[in-house]
Structure prediction request, 128 residues.
Amino acid sequence: MSKRLLFLFLVGVAVFFSLPSRAGAFYYGFCSEPSEPSCLMFGIDSKSEFDYCKMDVESYISDVESFLECLNSEAEDKLSEIEDLKSKINDLVEEIHSIRSAQDEARDEANRVIERFNCYARGDSFCP
Prediction:
């Protein structure tokens, strides 16, 4: 194994293990953006480096596809959460309407009681 290929391999391993701290990486939920293949940073000088880089790029493409699927799943989960929240909001709005209706009924009943009391207080003979 050439020194350059060994170096590229070690850089690839180092990049792989440093993904969580990689500046500019995108993480959302359980999704993490794959890093660009390190072999593209140094150029390709031999058939073996080309073969290694080809495998690295294929792996990267696969990782990007997985990343996109993960993001899609995260988005679907968030949409589901939104639908749940909409349902809860609708339930709360219905409860508020029930509370307002109960307030109106209590206010109307209190006004009827006051009217009846005032009727008796005036000395009327018939108070509904």
